[in-house]
Inverse folding.
C-alpha cells in the first residue's frame, strides 16, 4: 500500500513540475516581448494595421503598427533626427508590390520590403530594405538596402495615431503618405499599366485575354496598332459579336473604315444566334451607321 502511495505522489509531482516548467517558459517568452501577451490578452499600445491600394494592376500593401502621440514631442525627441526609424512601432513596417514599380522615379523590383525612414527637419530618407522581417530597426543593415530616396516633409494638422494613406491615386501612380503628429511625409509609387497589360497577356491562350487587352488599349486611345493586334488574336480564337465589334471600333479609330465596315457586317451576321437577337442587331447596326458617318 505504501509503495502505491509513493508511486502516485511521484507521478503527480512530475506532472506539476512539467506544468511549472512550461509556465516558466511561457512567461519568459512573453516577458521578452515589448508588449505582454502580444495583443492576445490585452490590447497592444500600438495596434497593427494594414492598408492596400491597386495602381493599374499593381497591388501595394503596407503593414504597420500605430503608435500614439500622447502629448509627447515626436520629431527630434521621441524619434531622433538623422537616425534610422522603423516607420511605425513594434515589428518593422513592411511594404509589398506584386509587380515592379518606381519610387520617386527610381526602379524597385516586385517583392516585400521593410520600410524604414530617416527623419530630419528639412528632408527625409525613405529606405526599402530587402530584410522584410525584423523587430524595429535594431538589426537594420544598410547593406540590405534595395533603394533609398529622399523626400520633403510637410507641416500638417495633428494626427494622434500614426497613419498611412493613399490620398491621390491614378491609373499610373499613387501617393503614399505617412502622417503622425504634425508632419506628413509623402512619396510616389508609379507603374506602367500599358507594359503591365502586355506582360500579363503575352503567352495567354484564351480569347478573353486578347479581348481585354485590345479593349484596354482602345479605351485609353493609345497604342491602337497594339490594340488591333490583340483584337485579331481574340477574333482568331473566338469569332463572336463582341470580338468582331471591338475590332471594328479599333479599325474605325485607325481610320481604316472599309475594313471596319466589313468587320462590323461580319458581326451583324451573328446577331441571329444571340440570346437577344433584336438588341444585338440594333447595337451592331448603330456601329455600322457610326462608321459610315465617320467615313463621310
Amino acid at each position: 500500500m505504501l509503495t502505491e502511495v509513493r508511486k502516485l505522489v511521484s507521478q503527480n509531482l512530475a506532472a506539476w513540475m512539467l506544468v511549472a516548467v512550461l509556465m516558466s517558459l511561457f512567461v519568459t517568452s512573453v516577458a521578452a516581448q515589448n508588449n505582454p501577451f502580444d495583443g492576445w490578452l490585452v490590447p497592444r499600445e500600438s495596434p497593427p494595421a494594414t492598408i492596400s491600394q491597386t495602381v493599374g494592376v499593381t497591388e501595394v500593401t503596407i503593414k504597420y503598427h500605430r503608435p500614439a502621440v500622447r502629448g509627447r514631442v515626436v520629431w527630434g525627441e521621441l524619434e531622433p533626427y538623422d537616425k534610422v526609424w522603423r516607420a511605425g512601432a513594434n515589428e518593422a513596417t513592411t511594404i509589398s508590390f506584386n509587380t515592379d514599380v518606381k519610387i520617386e522615379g527610381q526602379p524597385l523590383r516586385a517583392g516585400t520590403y521593410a520600410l524604414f525612414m530617416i527623419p530630419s527637419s528639412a528632408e527625409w530618407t525613405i529606405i526599402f530594405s530587402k530584410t522584410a522581417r525584423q523587430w524595429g530597426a535594431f538589426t537594420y543593415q544598410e547593406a540590405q538596402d534595395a533603394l533609398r530616396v529622399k523626400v520633403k516633409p510637410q507641416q500638417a494638422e495633428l494626427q494622434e495615431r500614426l497613419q498611412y494613406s493613399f490620398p491621390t491615386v491614378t491609373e499610373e501612380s499613387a501617393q503614399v503618405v505617412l502622417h503622425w503628429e504634425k508632419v506628413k511625409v509623402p512619396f510616389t509609387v508609379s507603374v506602367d499599366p500599358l507594359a503591365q497589360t502586355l506582360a500579363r497577356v503575352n503567352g495567354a491562350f484564351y480569347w478573353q485575354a486578347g479581348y481585354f487587352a485590345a479593349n484596354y488599349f482602345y479605351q485609353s486611345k493609345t497604342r491602337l496598332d497594339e490594340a488591333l493586334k490583340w483584337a485579331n488574336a481574340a477574333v482568331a480564337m473566338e469569332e463572336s459579336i463582341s470580338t468582331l465589334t471591338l475590332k471594328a471600333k479599333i479599325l474605325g479609330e485607325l481610320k481604316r473604315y472599309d475594313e471596319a465596315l466589313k468587320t462590323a457586317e461580319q458581326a451583324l451576321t451573328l446577331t441571329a444566334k444571340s440570346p437577344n437577337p433584336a438588341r444585338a442587331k440594333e447595337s451592331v447596326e448603330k456601329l455600322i451607321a457610326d462608321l459610315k458617318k465617320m467615313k463621310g
In short: Residues 2-33 form one domain.
